[in-house]
Amino acid sequence: MRGSADICAVMAKIFIDGEAGTTGLQILGRLKDRGDLDLLHLGDDRRKDSAARAEMLNEADISILCLPEDASREAVALIESESARVIDASIAFRTAPDWAYGFPEYKIGQRDIIADADRVTNPGCYACSSVSLIYPLVSAGILPSDFPVTINAVSGYSGGGKSLIAAFEDEASADHTDSAFYLYGLGLAHKHTPEIKAWSKLSHAPLFVPSVGRFAQGMLVSLPLQLWSLNGEVTPADIHAALADHYAGQQFVSVAPLADAAALANIDPEGLNGTNMLQIYVFANEVNGQAVVCAQLDNLGKGASGQAVQNLNLMLGLDETTGLL
């Protein structure tokens, strides 16, 4: 792999462009005490200086972009060095054919694709979790690619960045809300939908219904299935087996036994906060011919910053678990 050969002799230079934002701060927190990395920084007075950013982007071995979509495109355009590599955490390149999709557990060989890539797009939190449920079922032939997929999801408000955090935490904010929970994306054109469609290998855009709750971080993403509508006689055990086989031996994605899921009275969106884990459950009612496949994760962990660090480790030829829980 490219990373292990290139970086072993010297400490890798890493630049987080946008380190003052929600995702950037989380990544910095995971990297700042590591002795195997040389973190490059710009002072507050230079963070918006294009010339200073260009210097860092070209000096770094790998830059992690924690920027809005247009700013990420501008940052990539500033890179002239052929050896400079990038992980982008924005939506800008999530369906671009010349960027590696940064979900290592996506399929066999995805780790090698990420490790050898110069350009890696870090998945969105909703998208990563949705794809983790849908793609294995499509690839196993259980879910037809033209199935009318519906996804229901709830995230902590940190997923909306500084503005949404302020809306929930700062009473002086112009956008302050007292809501405990609300649906949004009611135009049915959420920015993660194209990514979910593309990487799940669906023929049609899924019907995606996101929501936000009054908790800072954590996430649940659910895929409801009417089993009687699927081709053949698909059982909850079939669904569970396809998912368990797909993620067998993975460090950060696991599938709970059916019996464990059946024993749960509820599931907490904050249950995996502070980790890089993604836990999948299959809930079922065989009498009614229904199942709900659910992903639980930290939207700032496996849904953003933790995943970026996992991809960074792969690109450097390191154990992908380095610095992660």
Description:
The strands form two sheets. The protein has a seven-stranded mixed sheet with strand order 8-9-7-10-13-12-11. A six-stranded parallel sheet has the order 2-1-3-4-6-5, with helices on both faces. The protein has 325 residues and is α/β, with parallel strands linked by helices. It is built from eleven helices and 13 strands. The mean pLDDT is 93. It is globular. The longest helix has 15 residues, at 125-139. Helices cover 32% and strands 21% of the residues. The chain has two domains: 2-123 and 304-315, NAD(P)-binding Rossmann-like Domain (Rossmann fold); 125-299, Dihydrodipicolinate Reductase, domain 2 (2-Layer Sandwich), CATH 3.30.360.10. Helix 2 packs across helix 11 and helix 5 packs across helix 11 (301-315).
Topology as H/E string?
HEHEHEHEEHEHEHEHEEHEHEEH
Overall tally of domains: 2
Count every helix, treating DSSP H or I runs of 4 or more residues as helices: 11
Helical proportion, percent range: 25-40%
- Second rung of CATH, namely the architecture of the largest domain: 2-Layer Sandwich
The main β sheet shows up as: 7 strands, mixed
Task: Provide the β-strand percentage band.
Answer: 15-25%
Tertiary shape: globular
**What ranges have pLDDT less than 50 throughout 5 or more consecutive residues?**
none
> What is the CATH superfamily classification of the largest domain?
Dihydrodipicolinate Reductase, domain 2
What's the count of strands?
A: 13
Which strand order does the major sheet show?
A: 8-9-7-10-13-12-11
In angstroms, what is the radius of gyration?
A: 20 Å
What's the rounded overall pLDDT mean?
93
Stated plainly, the CATH topology of the largest domain is called: Dihydrodipicolinate Reductase, domain 2
How far from one another are the termini? Answer: 24 Å
CATH C-level of the largest domain: Alpha Beta
Structural class estimated from helices and strands: alpha/beta
